[in-house]
Amino acid sequence: MSIGAQTTASVPAGPENGPHGEQESAVEFPPGIDVALTATATVAGETESRVGFTPAAVELIRQLWESHGALMFHQSGGCCDGSAPMCFPAGEFRTGDSDVLLGVADLTAQDGSALGPVEFWISAEQFEAWRRTRLVIDAVPGRGSGFSLETPTGKRFLTRSELCSV
User: Least enclosed by CB within 10 Å: which of 48, 71, 80, 166?
Assistant: First the structure.
């Protein structure tokens, strides 16, 4: 689905939500970017999601989940990997007061069954720099870097962004 005013959010499959657990939501993401999964807003005082995942990212996350179990992301502004989103087994990357939980996405399997939550964290310093930004996590050909789980897959996660009114 081409994204303009709305995106597709992952919800349980059923007659009211469509066969693949998709339903329309009012969250706006960059035009022309398909968003297959939207994270629930977790920043205090915010109700709109700041994080979405493309179909390619969701597929790669599912593959990694199958191999590694529950997952989490951390977006740093960082040294070794620049601003690449890093994927880790859930809880492996230690977060603290210098990090902000930007959103939690409820990942489902291809058949619509629930897999579990995927937390998306960002360093507090990067959050301040990107305070007015909505992020879309994509998966593209290339080699992931650092300690991110996708490194050996031939794909890497990439953050696409746009200014937003959040």
Answer: 80
Amino acid at 154: G
- pTM of the prediction? 0.80
pLDDT on residue 162: 76
Checking 62-65 for CB contacts under 8 A at 24+ apart, the result is 62/107, 62/109, 62/110, 62/115, 63/153, 64/149, 64/150, 64/153, 65/107, 65/115, 65/116
Say if 67 falls within a structural domain. yes
Determine which helix (DSSP H) or strand (DSSP E) holds 63, and give its type and residue range. Answer: helix 55-68
User: Does some domain include residue 135?
Assistant: yes
What CATH code is carried by the domain that includes residue 45?
A: 2.60.300
- Left, alpha or beta for 29 (phi > 0: left; psi -120 to 50: alpha)? beta
> What tens digit of pLDDT does each residue of 63-85 get?
999 999 999 999 977 655 456 89
